[in-house]
Each structure stands twice: as C-alpha cells, then as structure tokens.
Amino acid sequence: MGGESTPWGISVGSPHSKPEIFTVADPREPQARARMISEFANYLLKYFCHPRLNASESVLQAGAPIKQLWIPDPSHLDLLHQIAYGYAFANGPLDDMADLNDLGRLLNCLFIQWQHPGQQMVMIISDCLRSMYTFPASPVRQHHLGFLTAWLADDRTRTERLANATEAEETSISTTIDGAIERKLLNPLLERFTKTGRTDEVISREIRNIIEHQLNDRWNTAVNGLRSITTDQREENPGVTTLAGISTNSWNQLWVRNVNFERKGQQTFWPALETDKSPTSAAISANKRALAATQSKEALAHGDQELAMDLINSGHGMVCEVNQSLKTEGDLKHLIVEYSIPSNLDVRIGTSFCPFGQQDTELTVLEVDPAKHIVRLEGKSNFKVGEQLLLLEHTPDFLIEGKNRYIGLKGSPLNDLIISISNTSAKNGSI
C-alpha cells in the first residue's frame, strides 16, 4: 500500500497470526525504500524456498502441498508487477541488491504464474468470492472486498448486512491510501519529516502508526474474506487435484528450476518483464497454456455435472446411449453409441473421450455416422447395452508436448517459419 510520494507499507504473513509489517516514511529516498523492500524480500523469499535462505527446501518434493499467496484484490497484483519492474534486473548502487533482485524475479514469476490457466498459487480473494457466491449488487461494486465480506456475515439480518456493506464500501481496501487520511494526516507529517532532513524519529513513528492502522484494516478484511472461502461447507471438486498438479509443474519451470540453476552457478532462464524472449519460447508457452486450459476445464467438468453439460453443449462431448458392446483383442472393447446431445456433433476419427467421472478410461473414435447419430469407439470399458453415458472430449498430453518438441527443434519447418517471421518483422517493422 502506498503512493508515488506518500509513505509505503506492506503487510504479509499467515492468516492464523499477526502480520509482519514493513514501512518507509518517504519512499522518494531510494536507500530507505530499498531497506524496507529488502526486509520484505527476506520474508517472502524464505516462504517460497529460495535456496540462499532455505537450502533444505530448494526443490519441491513430490506430493508436497503447493505454496499459496492470497492477495485482497487485483490492484495488489499490479503492485507485485510494479515492484518486479523496479528490482528484478536492476544494477543500482543500493544496499542488499541481491535480495532486491531475487524479490523482483520472484514477484515477476508470481505475476506470470497468476496468468497460467488452472493455477492455484496466486489467488485473488475478491475474485474467488465472486466466483463462489451471487451478490445483490452491480459488478462494479463487487470489486470491493470489504463490501463482499460484509454481505457474508451470517449472524446479521439482510438489512444490517446491506447497511454494513454500504459503509464498508466507503473505506479504501486497494493499494492506495484513503484520500482524506493522506491530505489531513500524512501530507503535513511528510512535509515536516522532509524539512528535518528525514531524520526525525518521532515524526517517522507517527507516520508508521498511521500506515500500520491502514494496513491492519486491510489485513483483517482480507483474512475475513479468506476465512469465508476456506470454511465453505460445499464439497470440493475432485478436479482441484489436477489443478494443483498444473500449478506445481508451471511453478517448477518458472521459479524452482531457475533458483536451483542459479545455486549451482549454471545459466538461468528468468522470464522477461514485458514479453517472451523469443518467438519460439512464445509459441511453446502458448501451447502449454492451451493444454493447461483444456486440462483444467476437463478436470473440473468430471467433478461437476453442470460443468460437464456446459462442455458438451459447447461441442466438446456428447450425451449418448450404448447400443452395442463388442469384445475385441485383450481388454479392449468396441462400443457403438447413439448420441442425442449435441444435435450436430463435430468429431473426427481418432478423437479421445472419457466417461463422466472416469478420466482414466479413454475411448477413441473409430467411426462416425452423423446421419444416424452413431459413433463407434474403442477402449477398456465395462459399459452395458442401454446404459446412458456422458462422454467428455479428452486432449492427450503428448499431443501438445510433441508439438512443443517439434517447435523447439532447430531444423523443423515451424522453427524456421518463426525465425523468418521474427527477422522479417525486425527488418521491415511489420509482417
């Protein structure tokens, strides 16, 4: 929390304890700002297992729970990226430059991780609440976390909750300080602090007390919102396990691999702050995200029949009945099914499907008769004639992984095409 010329403050910690608070009275002084950011860096880097601070946990163990960072609203996500811009690759004459660089790279990785489909590491509390509940307010008002948490107070009447939500909406929860507090309290103190040469400890403590009060208000609101999420009694979708695996794989590539390379003195591949470093890496990243998006939708759909029907209605599955079940070689069977939904199925030979709730059972399309709504499939199954099935389209991992290997192959036509486009763009300014 802070501003361009107003004091900065950061609160961070476990929701089960009091937060650690870091402040700086005047962030326009680079060394003072760097000292505050450095203290924050040591806390966050240790949590995310940087080997310099926590060597025993430098590699994520298989099956270990993923590390999560919960932030109140999207404005705090933007601030992560802002700090990354300031320190990730800076070479300034500041104290503790190694800590500042490491923190900037970590925050850039977290910002990129948030964009990865299906990730469960960087979570925005206000977005999660809006996805879980329907609030009686316009979408604009629902972006205020205090407004949302006030509506979720179970021990009050609807009228009381509406009054509390309206009152909470008037307080600042974003990364900027409330304008009235800034004008009436902070600006006069900051002027006096500057005139003393930024050395008056009494004024500095007064500024810190105001900042701490603001940070604690935001902290308590965020913790209340997180508590509403974690104490929800609805059954967890089993597909969340798949999402956790997607998060771990993506984070290993972004962060864990690079910090371990750096620890061993090997070449690192830190992601850039603005864009991909090359057309080839951009294409590979796009394919990985496409696969993660497909895996996420498929995993969640297998745990929720409504999501499954949404996927089917969008053309990625079918509702059908088993007409024939014929045994072939080994454990394989040929299933002949007649589909009723969708009315016009667009499916090709070789496409894979999985029955609802059975992602380990893969059925491959051998033949399609659109006129009779008949599909012949092959796979390991024990379905009986007359049984109703929900079949969801399945994208095998090897299709995307194979494409990525092909793109990365120096002699491949795809790689040559990407390089040619890049060179043409560089010479002519456009393609």
Describe this structure in words.
This protein has 431 residues and is of the alpha+beta class. It folds into two domains: 8-230, no CATH class; 315-395, Elongation Factor Tu (Ef-tu), domain 3 (Beta Barrel), CATH 2.40.30.20. Helix content is 48%, strand content 14%. The strands form three sheets. The chain has a six-stranded antiparallel barrel with strand order 5-6-9-8-7-10. Strand 5 (317-327) and strand 6 form a beta hairpin. The protein starts with 7 loop residues before the first strand and ends with a helix.
Assign the structural class, choosing from mainly alpha, mainly beta, alpha/beta, alpha+beta, or little secondary structure.
alpha+beta
- The domain count comes to 2
Number of beta strands: 10
Encode the helix/strand succession as letters: EEHEHHEHHHHHHHHEEEEEEHH
Any key phrases for this structure?
2 domains, 431 residues, six-stranded antiparallel β-barrel, Elongation Factor Tu (Ef-tu), domain 3, disordered C terminus, alpha+beta
Please describe the topology of this protein.
Layout: E1 8-12, E2 20-24, H1 30-47, E3 69-71, H2 74-87, H3 97-114, E4 122-124, H4 125-132, H5 145-151, H6 158-168, H7 179-195, H8 201-230, H9 240-263, H10 279-301, H11 305-313, E5 317-327, E6 332-341, E7 352-355, E8 363-369, E9 374-380, E10 388-394, H12 397-408, H13 413-428
Parallel strand pairs: 3-4
Antiparallel strand pairs: 1-2, 5-6, 5-10, 6-9, 7-8, 7-10, 8-9
